[in-house]
Amino acid sequence: MSADKFADAAPIALESTGDCRIDCYVRASVPGPLVETVDAVVGRLERLREREQIAAYRVTDWPPEHHIGGDSGVGTRDDLVTEFERWASRHGHSLEPAFRRRERPTTYGWGACDWREQVRVPLVALAVYDESADTDEATDDDAMKGLRAVVPYTERPGTAGQRTHTVREWLRRADPEGDAASAHPGDHGEVVLLEGRQ
To answer: Is 86 left (phi over 0), alpha (psi -120 to 50) or beta?
Structure first.
């Protein structure tokens, strides 16, 4: 299956795609009631790996919001979300409402104030990468050629046919047998995954 077909499917399909890796980004601090929701996502990713629908997955915290002292080589949350936004733009999608950029005041002593852009991210997001992509030869314009998809995302943003694909819905379609085994705590989990605040 080509990366283009994978990225443009609605929702993005996983049939016979053992050549992809999924990075699952999770907030560092998850409220107790939502731990089951995150565990259910990880359980479904494990089943997809066991069935060889994906080559691998990893669960990681969102990167730090800003660079922390020196050049650690670790990208920031803004760097990662910018990469995701490029993918969405290239495919006519949007990352809103799950991801949002907003200006926030940063106060200093004596009442001085600067405005700094802050990136709000969802509780859980998935980035699907093509394991077979040759990223060694990627240029700046092509740096994400291995990125197949970002979930959640919104198709046809700003139109009557607009549709947002959530992590829970996407995994349910990729792993329909996992519904019986999953530990989602009711239907409110889907909204939280999409609309959680940070």
So the answer is: alpha
Ranges of each domain in the chain: 3-195
Whole-angstrom Cα distance, residue 144 to residue 190? 28
φ and ψ at residue 135, rounded to 5 degrees: -85, -10
Q: Are 175 and 44 in contact (CB under 8 A)?
A: yes
What is the Cα–Cα distance from 104 to 56, expressed in whole angstroms? 37
Tell me: the pLDDT tens digits for 4-57? 333 344 445 554 456 899 999 999 888 888 899 999 999 999 999 999 999 999
Q: Could you report the per-residue pLDDT of 58-99, keeping only the tens digit for each?
A: 999 999 887 666 555 568 999 999 999 999 999 999 999 999
Which class for 9: exposed (0-12), middle (13-18), buried (19 or more C-beta within 10 A)? middle
**Can you say how many angstroms the Cα of residue 73 is from the centroid of all Cα atoms in its chain?**
21
Maximum Cα–Cα distance for the chain, whole Å?
Answer: 60
What tens digit of pLDDT does each residue of 172-194 get?
988 887 665 554 443 333 433 43
Task: Please state, rounded to an integer, the average pLDDT across all residues of the chain.
Answer: 77
Residues 6+ apart with CB under 8 A from 78: 65, 66, 117, 119
Cα–Cα separations (whole angstroms), residue 157 to 60, 97, 124, 125: 28, 10, 21, 19
